[in-house]
Amino acid sequence: MPTWRTRRKCAEEVNGTGKENMGFADTIEFVHRDKDGKVIKKWTSKGTSHNCLTNLGFADVAALILLDVADPIQYDYIAIGTGTAAPNPTDTTLGIEKSRLAGVGTRVQTAVANDTAQLVATFSQAVDGGLTGTDDITEVGVFNAATGGTMLMRQTFAAEPLNWDAGDVFEMTVKIQVKQASA
Length: 183
What we know:
The protein has helices at about 5-15, 55-65; strands at about 25-35, 40-45, 75-80, 95-100, 105-110, 115-125, 135-145, 150-165, 170-180. The protein is mainly β. The chain has one domain. The longest helix has 12 residues, at about 5-15.
């Protein structure tokens, strides 16, 4: 088993700092369909390295590494909203949340096996009766509870106009890759 000194030496050889470089990259994907299933728009952020995780999210990710920390918090909910403020690591909620649903979580490969957490939820009036009228959806967040809870990450994107009453369906996929960061 590598010792602290061995790990430090390895990090120094890699980047000369004595610090191991690790980072997160998120990819947001959505598919907007009409009531007949016809794709209106597909969009992806194509993996963005930035402040996608919140400060509270980082604390929970760190807890996953340790056995002696209370049960790790599991993130299984995707929320969408209409807020437009830029994401900030201190965010704890979406700007204006419209709906939150339990997603289907899996691990997928981006660069190496199982390096990416993927969560998918499909929003529609049929699934959430509170989605009525029209909305310009502009933000997404991942949470650990059906209401309230801790927000792991938040991201904004160009407005996607949805007409819930006309039967629009909005499938949101959030991927968070754990990877080596650049020096």
